[in-house]
């Protein structure tokens, strides 16, 4: 009951969409007003989509059926036209014969008519003369076979003629490798464009007993040609093109899914092309039919020749003679095998890739462990051509030119069929190329927001989600295949990570963002990269290797900024206590110093809002600890020495300034104040820096310990005029 209601609803919807006065905007408006909510709209959308898919499938099926009917009709028309040409020619000969008979010699009419007919044939105007010329040149295969061999040259002569002519065609030497192939007919043609009938090029056609070769002229080399195309005769349809001056003497060749139009030199040559093509196709079809019947026919028991029948045979020569075993025959008369090439064409046209591969698997199972007589080889050659067409279609399905929507799962159908066809390496290459284009497109379509961190969040989400989906789909599609595919995926992931880092660095490092922003962005990227560990893919070392140069540049740049700011404050240093004016400002400074790791800052505060430290030392402490915290977020082993050397350079600027001021200051009060600042710097700040560095890195820094020991020597002998550096 529900199914009947759904069918009636679908038919009613189809009639409504097919009506002449249908307006999409009004239909959507009414549908929105009548629906109860989003669920109704979704269900209606699914019905319309199902109807669209059904219509598309019907259209494809009808197009292919019409195409096949058109080919059959064109073939029948060509047969009828050939017969009409022959009938017309015979009538013309009879007319000329009758007109040559004098009215007074009626008793000798029969003899005169025979002489006239013989003279017409010898003049070359009749079909018999043309057949005679073809027989002499080895061009035309007669249906019987015996008469052809007796009237024309033998197989060696035919092969020699084919070799001589094809030596003038570049790029077709492989044609000579086919046994039993010979030249039937050849001639010059002019090719025209099918839609606008514009002249394209001069060509030369070589008709063999099983195929048609088309070669283009080489203007700079007279009498030489270049290979253009090769069409098997069993997939070729010939259609006569009606004369429409100035377009005349033309015929069309149909080869699914393309067609080509050629013009002969005159009507006679056009007629010869049409006749020879059709008769050669019929001869080929008859030959193959006889071959299949002979292959399917059972043979009698093998004749064993008695060894005693030959009295001159030496018994000691070699091993005793073994009767030749009868070659096992393969039955190719089964209906599904006879229709296999056409069924493959239908599957390819209807994009039924699974059905096409199923048919190929069925054929391979049938022919497994069976001999390969000529009929089987011929069948395999025809099937291999369809396999090539199917492979080309599947390759196009995976090409980046196709729509990249749908994610990695959209490629599963084509990839799985390529793997079943034995094209695992090609499937892997095309799948990864398709996903690389999809990732590149997704990154390029991201809008660059004003806030860098917001853009990086979106970039990491898009890229690493795509990478994770690609890895899972790859594992699903290529499970059980050659392990070399997994190596290719790792190489691809490395390349994709390079694409991500390019976009990441351009937004974070090239735009000169602050070190804190850069640290947050790198942290986000690392967190997303670690999610790949869930599927056994660790790319952290790759992102480190790709980012190390940019991070080194950022650390160096920020280090220079801190050094310049510290030197500027040092140049204006008056060695006075800080007055923060309000308790709120003092409380805020205490919180900042506590967050920097300075827990005993209370002992350096005085009455009211005074701080018993210089502004220069306090600012240096906050800036140095901030640099260390942000740098530790960026830290990985390759940056160890870069970070350590930057810290030492920054600290030395402050240490040298305090050392120089302590040695040069003469005022006892200021000298005591400087010594107090030096004590804070050496006994509080440097240990905090050393401890925080060890916590973040996991091992102590000998350079920082040496720097603190050097400062202890300076405090022991504060009156020394030598520098600690």
From TrEMBL:
Q: Where in the cell is it found?
A: Cell projection, Growth cone; Cytoplasm, Perinuclear region
Task: Pinpoint the PH domain residues.
Answer: 182-282
Q: Name one Pfam family in it.
A: VPS51_Exo84_N
Q: Please, one GO biological process term? A: Golgi to plasma membrane transport
Checking PROSITE patterns in the record gives: PH_DOMAIN
Q: Which Gene3D superfamilies does the record cross-reference, listed alphabetically?
A: Exo84p, C-terminal helical domain, Exo84p, N-terminal helical domain, Pleckstrin-homology domain (PH domain)/Phosphotyrosine-binding domain (PTB)
Which of UniProt's keywords are assigned here?
Answer: Cell projection, Cytoplasm, Exocytosis, Protein transport, Transport
Q: Which InterPro entries match?
A: Cullin_repeat-like_dom_sf, Exo84, Exo84_C, Exo84_C_1, Exo84_C_2, PH-like_dom_sf, PH_domain
GO CC, alphabetical: exocyst; growth cone; perinuclear region of cytoplasm
Compositional bias (Acidic residues): 312-328
What CDD domains does UniProt report for this protein, alphabetically? PH_RalBD_exo84 (cd01226)
What job does this protein perform?
Component of the exocyst complex involved in the docking of exocytic vesicles with fusion sites on the plasma membrane.
Q: Which family does it belong to?
A: Belongs to the EXO84 family.
Record's protein name: Exocyst complex component 8
Q: Which organism is it from?
A: Lipotes vexillifer (Yangtze river dolphin)
